[in-house]
């Protein structure tokens, strides 16, 4: 498993200094509704949660 997950979306509550993701796990899904994707643009990070101010 990856030790460092990078994320540039600083509006996420899991974003940490150095563009690191501090979530305990990451959930990524395909736009196609199954388990197939050919390019990163065809996926979404479902771990994202808006950071509350």
- Portion of residues within helices: under 10%
Counting helices, strands and paired strands, the structural category is mainly beta
Task: Note the run of SSEs as H and E.
Answer: EEEE
State the shape: globular
Work out the strand percent: 15-25%
Which runs of at least 5 residues are low in confidence (pLDDT < 50)?
Answer: none
Mean pLDDT across the residues is: 92
Strands side by side in the biggest sheet: 1-2
Rg from alpha-carbon coordinates = 12 Å
| H/I helix tally | 0
Number of strands: 4
**How far is the N terminus from the C terminus?**
31 Å
Could you give a short account of the major beta sheet?
2 strands, antiparallel
What is the fold's blueprint, element by element?
Blueprint (H helix, E strand, L loop, with lengths): L14 E2 L3 E2 L6 E3 L12 E3 L8
Antiparallel strand pairs: 1-2, 3-4
